[in-house]
Write a structure and sequence with these properties.
The complex is a heterotrimer of chains A (about 300), B (about 170) and C (about 400).
Chain A: E1 10-11, E2 23-34, E3 37-43, E4 60-65, E5 69-74, E6 88-94, H1 98-104, E7 111-118, E8 131-137, H2 141-153, E9 161-167, H3 176-184, E10 187-193, E11 203-204, E12 221-226, H4 229-241, E13 249-252, E14 268-269, E15 272-273, H5 274-277, E16 280-282, H6 283-290
Parallel strand pairs in A: 8-9, 8-12, 9-10, 10-11, 12-13
Antiparallel strand pairs in A: 2-3, 2-7, 3-6, 4-5, 4-7, 13-16, 14-15
Chain B: H1 5-10, H2 20-27, E1 30-35, E2 50-56, E3 59-65, E4 69-76, E5 81-82, E6 96-99, E7 103-109, H3 110-119, H4 121-146
Antiparallel strand pairs in B: 1-7, 2-5, 2-7, 3-4, 3-6
Helix pairs in contact in B: 3-4
Chain C: E1 16-19, H1 23-32, E2 35-43, E3 46-51, E4 62-67, E5 70-75, H2 92-95, E6 99-106, E7 111-114, E8 122-128, H3 130-144, H4 151-157, E9 161-165, H5 176-179, E10 191-196, E11 203-208, H6 211-217, E12 223-224, H7 227-242, H8 253-259, H9 265-270, H10 278-282, E13 289-295, E14 301-308, E15 318-319, E16 322-323, H11 328-347, H12 357-361, H13 368-387
Parallel strand pairs in C: 2-8, 8-9, 9-10
Antiparallel strand pairs in C: 1-11, 1-12, 2-3, 4-5, 6-7, 6-14, 10-11, 13-14, 15-16
The chains are: A alpha/beta (about 300), B alpha+beta (about 170), C alpha+beta (about 400).
Chain lengths: ~300, ~170, ~400
């Protein structure tokens, strides 16, 4: 983003306006992950203004590109939650429209508005004592990365950590460099692509094909699934067919959001307000809704 | 891998729908084989006179595309069967196969298995009941891959401007 | 829920009679307390909600003829000021305005200012029908009853003074009785009035609902209401409940809509629905909004504005390059299912108050009560078919 001033904005709003008014964080670093995806690290706004409350894995922020607009983006890292506040935030995003293109281009030092945290969390802690099964499709790996990091940070609390990731092509695979490190740290990582290029020596096929070879113990697994709607449906159905109870399969839904706090009505999926009752929803609740045409 | 072919067949869920006797009969047409990484079980256009049950390792199906080289279409892992073209004429491979990793498998004499199916319809039906779910699942997965769900919105073709007369 | 209060229970020192010529005093009492009076007035062939400079702007002697897809003013034979059923606007025009600024920020000075461009006035809402009183209560739940309160709504709602006017003449499209929120007002008001225009004169039976209401009422010339007049007013309201233009079968409505997601009926409605969104504009509880970020030419000053939106808009459900709900069927289904069904899941009540505006203002005359009946019949048929051997 060119033309960004370095002056930190002062916030003079009353406390009741907090949910509607962004806090402007600063881009600390920008890393290009794939051709159209970047990971931005945001640091807390300048004193004396409090950062927004800490984010839990699965939650999202409404990020503002100054003067352009706002979009919901899930956190893709654990950040720094000192004192219960989001002092540092990590977001991976893809340039698909005017706002995300602007956010995608944001250089270190520029300002990005943050509102949040909003939505339900993956609730990784509820999987204590069980195997964590993570199935990611495409950029769906981004909201799931905090699940891996949370589990690794408290390794003895959980059983196996299994990560099954599908990407469009090898070049679209997110966090490729980290996957090796996770393998070393005890995550069982299996990766597949829809379409290979000539340099790829890994698996080729739909991500659901990775489920059977993983040899899951359905009675002891909690599944975390994120990706395009259709991919989540087929994946959750495949996991359920293997015997994982639907109440222990969680999906991360996505719908158009203009407010993130239940005022604008855009994010409805039947009875659910995805910003409030989601984005993380148990498949026992989501399955029937995801099957209805144009719901 | 050790053990008789029959025992190794029973250890794999793929042929679970066959009776023990049927598995025993099938085992008579099977031999344990191994492939080193890079070895090619078959090439496109070759005679489809065998099929394999992969026990360990992995095999990639590929196709030589002029101007693009060898394109991998799909990879198969342990527990899956490699090769369907033996099931019906013209009994020719439609794709090629290359071992991705050191692979252990049981190779079956396709012509012999076909004769068994013709002679014993119950056996033949059981074989089809083993194969068809995998074929439909693979087709479904392929259709989903065709949807290109991970594509960015700009990569998805939308409403065209009008009819194209070419 | 029976709309009337027990006449015997209402003691005569609570209710008073205010003559029609006492209305200017009511205006003055409100003005002197800093309120901007908003109420009905005739404009452009309809009775709309607008700021009133004086009592004279009330629609004395005006009534309306409403039916599906029809709304016409007509002259009344009396001088009633509130003898008309719901017009094209509702109190959300004031409490949940069509355009509101959420914040503005300046990159050069480094300031972010929350809130509307100008402090909104404190509104006195004069002539809120019981259906609309309920609608305001519903908006209270939607916009301030959750984890985060909408600051624009809160800013206008907190200072508002509500004067309810009960109904004695329901319109042809009204069905507040079915929805349990009219034609009498039970709560949610500072003052409630019942207009009488019989031989006894043009007067109002008024009662306070809050201390603030009582305080204002004390400044208005009135006389104690006698038992007979009170009973007369109550009876008029009770009888109005029997004369509703329509009924809505509310029994099991949320379940009916949830079960009807794949109903063939949506094709039928879609053949009539223009997806124009009129219903969402006139509905007193439709609250959907969108936001728009704007800058000045330098790009250093940005503002976010919030605007009314409608679930009928094609890009309402825009996601990943296209909309989830593109067909007319899906958009109509979304609106009615939300209003009568999933609103319960989301906000704990129905979203419909039976005001009938959507029926009157639909250009093709789609009737929400008839659509529900059609869905119910189809469910009955389906259930009967299932029982067949």
């Amino acid at each position: 983003m060119t033309g960004q001033r370095t002056a930190a904005p002062a916030l003079t709003e009353s406390t009741s306006g907090t949910a509607a008014v962004p806090r402007f964080y600063r881009v600390a670093s920008r890393r290009e992950d794939t051709a159209d995806t970047v990971t931005l690290e945001l640091t807390e706004p300048a004193c004396p203004f409090e950062p927004v409350p800490a984010f839990a894995p699965g939650q999202f922020a409404m990020l503002t590109a100054f003067g352009i607009g706002e979009v919901p983006i899930s956190v893709s890292g654990l950040g720094d939650n000192g004192g219960g506040r989001a002092r540092r935030l990590e977001h991976t995003l893809r340039a698909v429209g005017a706002v995300t293109r602007a956010l995608h281009a944001a250089q270190p030092g520029s300002l990005i508005g943050v509102r949040g945290p909003f939505g339900t969390s993956w609730d990784v802690a509820s999987a204590a004592g069980r195997d964590i099964v993570i199935v990611a499709g495409g950029i769906g790996l981004a909201p799931l990365r905090p699940v891996v990091l949370t589990a690794l940070a408290d390794r003895s609390r959980y059983g196996r950590i299994v990560l099954l990731a599908g990407a469009r092509t090898p070049g679209d695979l997110l966090y490729a460099g980290e996957l090796e490190r996770w393998r070393r740290d005890g995550v069982e990582v299996a990766v597949t692509v829809d379409r290979a290029d000539t340099g790829w020596s890994g698996q080729v096929g739909l991500v659901t094909a990775l489920i059977e070879p993983a040899g899951l113990a359905p009675d002891n697994s909690v599944a975390f699934v994120c990706g395009p709607d259709v991919m989540m449906r087929f994946t959750a159905d495949a996991l359920a067919a293997r015997g994982i109870p639907v109440s222990r399969i969680r999906v991360s839904l996505e719908r158009n959001m203009r407010c993130g706090v239940g005022w604008c009505g855009h994010c409805q999926l039947g009875p659910l307000l995805v910003c409030r009752d989601g984005p993380v929803v148990g498949y026992d609740r989501a399955a029937a809704l995801m099957r209805v045409r144009e719901l | 891998m050790t053990g008789t072919v029959a025992a190794r067949l029973s250890a794999q869920p793929f042929f679970a729908v066959l009776t023990e006797a049927e598995r025993g009969a099938l085992a008579e047409d099977g031999t344990a084989v191994t492939f080193a990484a890079g070895e090619r079980p078959f090439d496109e256009g070759g005679v489809a006179d065998m099929f394999w049950l992969i026990e360990q390792g992995g095999v990639a199906l590929d196709m030589r595309v002029p101007g693009r080289g060898d394109q991998i279409v799909e990879t198969l892992g342990p527990g899956t069967v490699l090769g369907w073209s033996w099931l019906h004429p013209p009994y020719r491979w439609h794709f090629g196969a290359v071992a991705r990793l050191a692979t252990e498998a049981i190779a079956f004499d396709a012509a012999s298995v076909r004769r068994r199916c013709d002679a014993d319809p119950a056996f033949g039906y059981a074989m089809l009941r083993a194969f068809t779910p995998v074929i439909t699942e693979r087709l479904q997965a392929t259709r989903l891959r065709l949807l290109d769900l991970y594509a960015a919105p700009s990569q998805v073709r939308r409403v065209s401007i009008g009819p194209v007369n070419v | 829920m029976h709309p009337s209060e027990d006449p015997a229970g209402q003691s005569s020192d609570q209710a008073v009679i205010v003559d029609a010529d006492g209305l200017p005093a009511l205006f003055e009492a409100l003005r002197s307390r800093g309120y901007t009076v908003v109420g009905p007035t005739v404009r452009g062939g309809a009775i709309v909600v607008a700021e009133l400079a004086s009592v004279a702007e009330l629609p004395f002697g005006w009534g309306v003829d409403t039916e599906a897809g029809r709304y016409r003013l007509r002259k009344r034979s009396d001088t009633a000021a509130f003898g008309h059923s719901a017009g094209p606007q509702s109190w959300k025009s004031v409490l949940h305005p069509a355009r509101a600024r959420l914040w503005s920020a300046d990159r050069v000075t480094g300031t972010v200012e929350a809130g509307e461009a100008a402090e909104p006035p404190r509104y006195a809402l004069l002539g809120v029908r019981p259906c609309d009183v309920r609608a305001i209560g519903i908006l209270d739940q939607v916009l301030t009853g959750g984890r985060h309160a909408d600051p624009v709504y809160r800013g206008r709602r907190d200072g508002a003074f509500v004067i309810a006017v009960e109904c004695t003449e329901p319109g042809a499209t009204c069905f507040c009785t079915s929805m349990g929120c009219g034609p009498g007002a039970e709560s949610g008001f500072d003052l409630a009035m019942t207009e009488l225009t019989d031989a006894g004169g043009h007067r109002f039976v008024a009662r306070a609902g809050t201390a603030a209401g009582a305080e204002v009422l004390a400044d208005v010339p009135s006389r104690a209401a006698d038992e007979a007049t009170i009973r007369y007013a109550v009876t008029a309201v009770d009888e109005a409940a029997e004369r509703m233009g329509r009924t809505m079968p509310v029994q099991g409505l949320p379940q009916l809509l949830a079960d009807s997601r794949d109903s063939p009926h949506w094709d039928d409605v879609a053949s009539r629905c223009l997806t124009c969104g009129n219903c969402t504009m006139v509905c007193p509880t439709c609250f959907c909004t969108t936001t728009e970020d704007v800058t000045d030419l330098t790009g250093d000053h940005a503002e976010r504005w919030r605007l009314w939106d409608s679930c009928f808009a094609l890009d309402f459900s825009y996601l990943h390059g296209g909309s989830v709900r593109t067909s007319g069927q899906s958009r109509y289904r979304q609106w009615i299912t939300h209003k009568l069904g999933t609103w319960h899941d989301q906000f704990g009540s129905s979203g419909c108050v039976g005001c009938g505006r959507c029926i009157a203002w639909c250009p093709t005359g789609i009737d929400i009560t008839q659509e529900v009946s059609a869905l119910a019949s189809l469910q009955d048929v389906a259930a009967t078919d299932e029982d067949k051997p």
